[in-house]
Amino acid sequence: MRDFLTQLSYDAWVLPALLLIPLAGALLLLVTGSLSSDDGTLEAAPSARVIALVTFVLEFVVSMGLWWSYDPAGARWQATFDHWWIIPWNARLSMGIDGISLMMVLLTTVIMPLAVLGSWTSIRTKVRSYYALMLVLTTGMLGVFVARDMLFFYLMWEIMLIPMYFIIGIWGGERRVYASIKFFIYTTAGSLLMLVGIIYLWTVSPVPAMGLPASFDYDRLLSIAHTHRAALWLFGAFFLAFAVKTPMFPFHTWLPDAHVEAPTAGSVILASLMLKMGTYGFLRFAIPLFPTAAMTPWVRTTVLSLAVIGIIYGALVAMVQPDFKKLVAYSSVSHLGFVVLGIFALTQQSVQGAMMVMINHGISTGALFLLIGMLYERRHTRLIASYGGIARVVPLFSALLVIVSFSSIGLPATNGFVGEFLVLLGSFKTHPFFTLFATTAVIYAAAYLLWGIQGIVFNPLDKKENEHITDLNARELTIMGVLVVAIFWIGIYPQPILRRMESSSAYFVHSVEQGQADTRTASREVR
Amino acid sequence: MLQELAAVDTHPLAETAARFVGLLPLLPLAGFLVNGALSLASSYKRGPADPSAAGAHDGTAAEQVAAHGSDHDAVARHPYAAITSVVGTLMPALSFALAIAIFLAMVSAGDFSTPYVRSYFDWMVTGDLQIRWAFQLDQLSMVMVLVITGVGTLIHIFSIGYMRDDPGYPRFFAYLNLFVAFMLVLVLGASYPVMFVGWEGVGLCSYLLIGYWYNVKSNADAGLKAFIVNRIGDVGFLMAMFMIFANLHTLDITAVNAAAPSLGFNSALVTTICLFLFMGCVGKSAQLPLYVWLPDAMAGPTPVSALIHAATMVTAGVYLIARSSALFVMSPAACITVAVVGTLTALFAATIGLKQWDIKKVLAYSTISQLGYMFMGVGVGAYAAGMFHLITHAFFKALLFLGSGSVIFAMHRAYHHTGNHDDAQDMRNMGGLRKYMPWTFALMWIATLAIAGVPPFSGFFSKDGILGAVFERAQHGTLAEATWLGMPGSAVLYALYGLGLLTALLTAIYMTRLMLYTFHGPNRTGEAERAQLREAPWSMTGPLVVLGVLSAVGGWLDLPATLPLGPVGLLDKWLEPVVGAATATAAGVVGEGVTSTEYVLIAVAVAIAVLGIVIALVRLRPAALLPKRDALPEHGIEKLLENKYYIDELYDDAIVTPLVSGSRNILWKGIDRGIIDSFFVNGSAALSRGVGWVGSQFQSGETGAYAWAIAIGALAVLGAFTFR
């Protein structure tokens, strides 16, 4: 396989291709839209979803080469691409992947076709715009994951926001306008501080002695040594942007609203992919750029406390939600808390585990949102209390809901366990007490999800309207089939994934520890 | 890695049937897949291609509901019943056959002290963490495998008859098969994480099977409760794994046991690890204070109660401690804690068992109580004795549950026939059943005598082994010399011995009570129903007979030296390579030969058992008992016992309700919606709107106002420069 890819010189073009393919698809949709005079309903433009699906499947096929072409023992950055962009500022279209980016890119290209299939019949108005926005959004997300130029990264980061704003605001539920504006302002407010931080980094980046001009190049910016005070401020700016996105307690309240109001695919993309931007930001930028600040004891303790509070708080609040979608939304706060715990605990296992949780949460929570969307399409309610006992009417749906729920609960031999176990096992080495509290979340996780699914699929079948719910069709089974296979594959044999991420996470742990040690010796010399 | 492979190749079991150890769980797993597919295939109706557009009223689902009827009112046999019965029972039976082959190979291989480990592929390998999918066969796991597959197969056969008319027939067998698979993973796992796969997997099956008749809310609630309470214990198991890994850098059971001494004898570290592990056992094996899920678990079908909630899953905690014996003997404090919790649970549950009316509830509390005995045994470092009681208990308790299943089956059928809606499980509605169900009657008496500890039935030997070990440890050894919460270990253990005897007395009383009210005295079922009462079919009574034989003669597995009625101490010798060293550490110097004290202990134990039975026979009057609907309310201590000391209510009021209402009112509505959202988020929005409004007031468009503002501003700037 690798030889075949080399023949195609796959590595040279794959990343820009991945960014361009969705844009081409979006363009095609817009062109067909402007040529036709219909109103863009599903009946009038049935080809839109087909175009989107074909584009995403193509995207998936192209991206899959990375699985084989990426060499875990190879260079730190692979499949690199570099092209001039804004010459006066020395900003470049610079891309590349390491083990962390690789899995995030693949997660995105796997989830997106499923999100299209999940929207297949539920999105019935302005379908061309809808799918075009999804395609543009994909370019933005992939750009974030592959960018090695900070300005390019920031552009992609902001590009991602706009399509999601419209997806929630146009195709969302009753309170969609409130939710979309809240989502937009919340996340932009966080990002603007980060922009200030990026510009500051650019101003301190030139090395006149070596004749190097100012640059947004990630690796260049990595090597800058900041004063502790500057590092703290910069870390704070980046932290805020990523903490809102993750979302960490107490910056999470945009999430339940956005999730509940978003259409199914919107929730899936938000939960499975966009939340990962925050934790990806910690791994890629906030910590490696400012290791001394991130690892300052009080900063670290604060972040870990917020992570553990988020784990428990998210789970407890999820437990009392009457709306199943909101329940899953709060469970995301809890799951992402594990990711932050793992990253800041800074051991090989905890960081690997954090990355596994990022993937697993994408699969399991995405699957939960898809399932609840399928049910919503039939009954037009997400309130747990309006269901009950439907396992007898829709056995296959119920079986899948139970399987996916247990993967989210983290039952061993499903994906959820691998991530949480590694996070906790690794975190215990450096932070046993935080780990003890975080571990209790396995109780609450079981409580909120099992309580939720009991109210839906078990208990007496006592409502007439529920007696006529129809079970899943072939399209829906395809979606869930892919996700269930992923659930058990990662649960039983995660090693291929762990192996691909191992050297990158080891590098992360090592470089942050190194950065800390360097400054410690430096400050001692000064004294 | 290569070394490891070489070691496996030269292992005496390498070329034997043990190679196929992986098939042990895979066979029932295949059964699960087949039966699960059959279950879904028979009930799935494909949905419309466009669920948004399709009218939701296509009738197919409704017709299906009509055809199925309510789960509890049997209609007709499931269309796939035949293939399900074959696959569902054949797979565990094949596993049992393989287990016997491996057992024979083990016997002929003679003594070997290192377990046979078969490693399949990597699970989680990163940094210094090495977790593989690997199974480990040694004398201890072999015993468990034989019990699980043997008793499991019998219970599968029983279920063919018991679940005959259930509309979810393939689903039931799918879950039961999955349970056997996970239980085998639990006992075969070569590392704690693999063991944990089985540990939580059996919890999943327990959850699914307790809530098997899921359309009744109390059943679904009971399943939920079981899973969550178990997860509280699992926090302990997880924490123990984290601590072990952080200190020993491995999670392989053999390596951990070998490295256990490096943790330091009686160190706080090893005690903490052991107590966390024990927390897992307390959840899974229903000990104080986490026992509350097991009585509720009786909501599941009775074969489930027999297999999962009596014979196998609930004993996993005992197995875990025996498995980790090298860790536990490092910490006398943890060992005594295990024994104390076990003893108190045994006594506590036995008192509740005295006053329960539901036949399965009596057996549930009896199970909790007997599990307490097992923990007493493994707690004092008598691992073989604890495992012995685990085995005999699997025989007689499975028999008691299946026997009660036969009774309920008969009662249910009689009630169904006449359309009576009385409680088919309440002993006050039974009575005199020996006339109608002679086989069940006789077999259940065997089990009762066994559990009461009457020689020569199996329970007598195993319970006596445990009590004898407690008495012996009180005299000498590391536990006797240790202190526990400031008390001398020796005194604590003597007290435990006394409480153990008291529990034995109560056991004999409540079991005799169960037999009296169920099978003796006049029948209280009702005229019309009485005509319908009869023995269950042979597919159900057959397994009972096998278990009856095992309950009667099971004691010969491990005869004490005091009573050499055959080969002495078979199980002791068999388990010697696994737990021998740990047992010796706990026991300290062992006196040679048989002393007269031991005969006295045996005599006391027998006297207690007989006394209990006599008390029950003399004091209880089945003839005076009223059917449930005519029963008078209880008073005083009897009411307290009937209501199980109100512990469930206490947990609800003290923990569940405050947690839920606190989460709802303080965390969600208070902090999330109130403080964060209303105050900070929307507040900052309002603030910026306000600032914007103030700013907009300045843009009035009046040139005069602008001129004034410019003038004042200019003056202010000038002033600032002047007075600097």
What does this structure look like?
The complex is a heterodimer of chains A (527) and B (724). Chain A has 527 residues and is mostly helical. Chain A has a domain at 295-517. Chain A contains 21 helices and 2 strands. Chain A has helices at residues 2-7, 10-35, 47-69, 99-119, 127-146, 150-171, 176-204, 218-222, 228-245, 254-261, 264-289, 291-294, 297-319, 324-345, 348-379, 395-409, 415-430, 432-439, 441-457, 474-492, 495-526, and strands at residues 78-86, 91-97. A two-stranded antiparallel ribbon of chain A has the order 1-2. In chain A, α10 (254-261) crosses α14 (324-345) and α11 (264-289) packs parallel to α21 (495-526). The N and C termini of chain A lie far apart (56 Å). With 724 residues, chain B is mainly α. Among the domains of chain B are: 1-44 and 77-121 and 132-190; 344-642, no CATH class; 662-686, no CATH class. Helix content of chain B is 69%, strand content 3%. Chain B contains 28 helices and 4 strands. Chain B has helices at 2-10, 23-43, 60-68, 81-109, 139-162, 169-188, 192-210, 217-248, 253-259, 268-284, 293-296, 302-311, 316-323, 325-328, 332-353, 359-379, 383-418, 438-452, 458-475, 478-481, 489-519, 527-530, 538-553, 570-587, 596-619, 636-642, 647-698, 703-722; strands at residues 116-126, 129-137, 483-484, 487-488. In chain B, the strands form 2 sheets. Chain B has a two-stranded antiparallel sheet. The N and C termini of chain B lie far apart (80 Å). In chain B, 53% of the residues are buried. The interface between A and B is large, with 79 and 78 residues.
Q: Helical segment tally of chain A?
A: 21
Structural class of chain A: mainly alpha
Largest beta sheet: strand ordering of chain B: 1-2
Give the oligomeric state of the chains in this entry, treating copies of one chain as homo and distinct chains as hetero: heterodimer
Order of helices and strands of chain A: HHHEEHHHHHHHHHHHHHHHHHH
Extract low-pLDDT stretches of chain B. 56-74
Structural class designation of chain B = mainly alpha
**What is the terminal separation of chain B in angstroms?**
80 Å
Main sheet: strand order of chain A: 1-2
- Proportion of residues in β-strands of chain A: under 5%
Number of strands of chain A: 2
Helix content of chain A: over 70%
Give the overall shape of chain A.
globular
